[in-house]
Amino acid sequence: MKNYILTGTLCMFLFGGCGEHAHDHEHEGHDHEAEIHAEEKTAHSDEIVLTPEKAKAAGVEAEVVHPGVFREVIQAGGQILSAQGQEATVVAASSGVVSFSRKIAEGIEVGKGSELLSVSAEHIQEGDPVRKAKVAYEKAKEEYERAEKLVGSQIVSQKEFAALREAYQNARLAYEALLPSKSGKGVAVKAPIGGFVKNCLVKEGDYVTAGQPLMTVTQMRRLVLKADVSERYYVQLPRIVSANFKTPYNNKVYCLENLGGKVLSFGKSSGDTSYYVPVTFEFDNRGDMVSGAFVEVFLLSGERQGVISLPESALTEEQGLYFVYLKLDEECYKKQEVQLGTSNGERVEILSGLKDGDTVVTRGAIHVKLAAASNAIPAHSHNH
Prior knowledge:
Number of domains: 4
Number of helices: 6
């Protein structure tokens, strides 16, 4: 019996590693079998087995890590804004009462030249400005056409004719500026550019005066990222080449290099009441950005060589400590504690815990963690 136990123990040491699932089960005796499994469990209690089929179904992916280039990172708060020239303020051309020509809400799309609302002074003491402008235009036109017929015979002087012509042109421009609405009541207010309504400052029935802002239309083809950087990083600002940013509404990280982004300016000073210096970028809007949103910004500057980094998705956290899962073979994994450095929003620097050539789970780490916590070893069965 001792010979059988000695032989079984030797086999366990030779073949008992994770991924080595061939055991000699031709030995007889229940006690001998239990001893083998007890020793195997002790030797490999930190190893987790997940079959390739289950790993694939759970979306588990891994990558081999190698030291590479990693940029210096400055983290800051920031905001997404509309780019200059991509936004227009709609103002009232005359005084009167607001009447919307269509349903207007923030975010609704409008075409260039489309009627947004009308401003009518029909029942106001000052009278309808459209009607007044039309009367003035028709009178100036009539006087100009009469003088045009008489100037040849010198009944009207060239000086008088020039004055009448100028008065007619001004009256025509004033009348055309006060375009009548589709309803025929009041002055039509149209979108100066095509885009989206950013905000609406008036409501149905409001009284407005000429020149008063009514709403803002933004094209949002290009957006601006404005980062507020602490003064202590001021000397590093000229080295900033790009940035990543994370939005709060979808927790997604965007890379300016992939959005046609470029640095616009570095602030030369902080504000009177602020200890932050602005750094501004411009980039393409790919359709899922919210102008005005506050974001987390990762400013990227000089390159560092020989840095091991991993995607943020590779990390799991337990009581303030961070772990990754090493893939040892096709179905065997091991939990590994790591020390973190800086993060650029997409990837994080690993200071210790990994070496060149390690294979690390980068997607689906939570499924490997759950497999370990359940104390179940899927597909690690033994046929006795």
